[in-house]
Amino acid sequence: MPLHYINELLGLPELQLHTIVSIDTKEVHLEASPVTYKQPCPGCHSEQDVKRDGRNASRKIRHLSIFGKKSYLHVPSIRMACTRCQISFVWMYDFVGPKQRYSWAFRTQTVEQAFGSTATHSAKMQEVPVSTVQRMHQDALPAESKRLTEQAWCEAQNTSGLVLGIDDFAIKKGHTYNTGIHNLRGETMLDLFPGRKLEALRAYAKQHPDFLALKPKAVVMDLAQAYHTWIRECFPNAIRIADRFHVHGYVIESVQAVRKSVQHTLAPRARAILKSHHHLLNPPAETLSDKGRTELDILLGYSPLLRQVWEWKEAFSRWYDHSLNVHVACLGFQRWCQQGESVNHDAVRSALKTMRNWEAEIVNYHRCRWTNATVEGRHNRIKAYQRRRYFMPNQTFYKAGILIECNRHRLSG
């Protein structure tokens, strides 16, 4: 292949290839030099008084693979001198940084691979040391995180009818938590900060005026009192919505509590069947297969109480899906609570007490139909990232990595 075609494949217009130094089954070594004869002085930015002053040993630069082989560019390290400024400098290439052995294009490709996988996997793909990939990754994290975060905040500030999602995720289950702020309409993560107690939430709002400057139409949260108090203080006009996923979880927990109490009264064979198929009680009946519905009928036939609480759970799903407006939702919610009062079980009574206490926030779903479903999916992505990065000890890199992981698929490059 002629050298000028190889030059086009490399995509480096500042270089002119001279010869192929060597080529084997794994590597290609190419010798190249700058297209121009002189380079402007970094002090006075002029070429008139610049002259060549010899050269050092050539630089060996790893570039993108060509023909399925690792490519290395051998470029001269030319010494330059400016008679006006009385300074000396070495030729500066645009495709590689000073004193670096990997081109910018190679670093970008390697970092992009590391963002979606592990440093070990990226190192194996590029055939470089793992420590090199880790260093490149950490060098790229702050700038990429800043770029994506600024883009996400700009989008949130300019969004009409902004809907925020607030939820926490565990660093160490039961001990340490982070709180995430999400733009549900834009499907981006705006920020995260340590803690989930009211003091930590208020401190964040005080330190971040950009957050208080947002004008959300609604905010979706779970039933944590701290979140609702905080949002009421920050955005008094926003609709506070109790997340459907969390609210429905209380009802499902009641069904499973009834199932456990019924289970102890059954014969051993029936007890084993009910225990092994208890998951069939959770999803809506219409989402089950024909086999699943048949097995569910068998489970519900073990106890009238279990069937009664399951029908109460199904009525709640229908209320969420089929309430036409807020007025109809309020009436339907009261009928559903009355239906639950007929179930004689402590778990159901406890759930009903919680539902009545949060009635306004639960019904608000029918004012603005948004949930934190995308947030829960993003939490799974965060957990996968934490496992890949072994709970990165540097908090700056940890936060930057999570923001990139959650936003890079949504925001433009």
UniProtKB/TrEMBL annotation:
A family per Pfam: DDE_Tnp_ISL3
Domain Transposase IS204/IS1001/IS1096/IS1165 zinc-finger: 40-85
Transmembrane spans: none
Residues in Transposase IS204/IS1001/IS1096/IS1165 DDE domain copies: 164-399
InterPro entries the record matches: Transpos_ISL3 (IPR047951), Transposase_DDE (IPR002560), Transposase_Znf (IPR029261)
Protein name from the UniProt record: ISL3 family transposase
Organism this protein belongs to: Paenibacillus herberti
The organism's taxonomic lineage, starting at the top: Bacteria, Bacillati, Bacillota, Bacilli, Bacillales
